Known about the structure:
Layout: E1 3-5, E2 11-20, E3 23-31, E4 37-44, H1 46-52, E5 56-63, H2 82-91, E6 97-102, E7 105-109
Antiparallel strand pairs: 1-2, 2-3, 3-4, 4-5, 5-6, 6-7
Amino acid sequence: xxxxxxxxxxxxxxxxxxxxxxxxxxxxxxxxxxxxxxxxxxxxxxxxxxxxxxxxxxxxxxxxxxxxxxxxxxxxxxxxxxxxxxxxxxxxxxxxxxxxxxxxxxxxxxxxxxx
Length: 115
């Protein structure tokens, strides 16, 4: 996979892409200028439209890794979604910020919050 520029917030490095039945899911990681790690997914297609009411949905987490590499992202795969990584972080009480966008709507979970 390649990279794409996203302004001053670093570069997204797309690490996986999956397609099934007209639905596409892209997974990315990037190191932000402030040192945090971002891991995200973008989906588009008929299932995304059915679930979110729009053909495109993006969501991502941002976590402070203290300058370290961050969590093992190997579990993210065709059958393992970003929400599964979030469940793992919650189980380990690792705080992270969360944001999702779909259409004109957004969902936010502020950083530093552990469940």
